[in-house]
Amino acid sequence: MKTKERILNTARALFNKHGFKNVTLRAVAQELSISYGNVTYHFKTKCQLISSLYEDMLLETSEILKSINYNNLFKGILEAPKISFSICMKYSFFYVDFVEIKRSYNDIALKVDQDNRNRKGKYLLVLQQLQVQDVLRKDLTDKDLYYLMDLSGAIRTFFFINLNPNNFYDVDLEDRYVEYVNHLIFPYLTKMGVERYKSYSKK
């Protein structure tokens, strides 16, 4: 494994464990038993390091939309949180320290906001297709659908912020997360959507 990749992996683990504000580049160097200069050769600042981790996370999350089975779109949407769970756990400090990261690094904050807008634009098309398929209520406006996406993001963040670190390895944690996220869509479903939701939940 290359030094740059080792730095990223180690920093991510330390950020997850101690919080991003409590971890310095020197601490990353010490954990890896390499010189501070070796770390700053690859990442001159902590902001650069976090930006790189964010890009890695963004790349992984972008694959979720590609993995959705469009032959059964609703089932694909309900399965997406199961795919995203491992990514969220891998980069949990982004959720737990999200507000502080945005306050500390304006460039990252601006990029996160733009990426969120782009991602919601793509998911809007998916939700609109679920309306066409009579899964989501047709009376929901685009504004309603954007609100649903914003609420989903808040719920996901809230889940990890309030997660006890001692429970990170609970065997049912992933199932609780999936149920927690998916149940959000339930009040917006049509009668057929409710029936399909229940049938998928039993499997």
Fold blueprint:
Layout: H1 3-18, H2 25-32, H3 36-42, H4 46-67, H5 73-90, H6 92-96, H7 98-104, H8 106-132, H9 142-161, H10 173-182, H11 191-201
Helix pairs in contact: 1-2, 2-3, 4-5, 5-10, 7-8, 8-9
Provide a short characterization of the protein structure.
The chain has helices at 3-18, 25-32, 36-42, 46-67, 73-90, 92-96, 98-104, 106-132, 142-161, 173-182, 191-201. It is mainly alpha-helical and 203 residues long.
| Proportion of beta-strand residues | under 5%
Given the helix and strand composition, which structural class is it? mainly alpha
Rg for CA atoms: 19 Å
Mean pLDDT: 91
Order of helices and strands: HHHHHHHHHHH
How does this structure look, described?
17% of the residues are buried. The chain is mainly alpha-helical and 203 residues long. The protein is elongated and about 60 Å long. The chain is 74% helix and 0% strand. The model has no long low-confidence stretch (mean pLDDT 91).
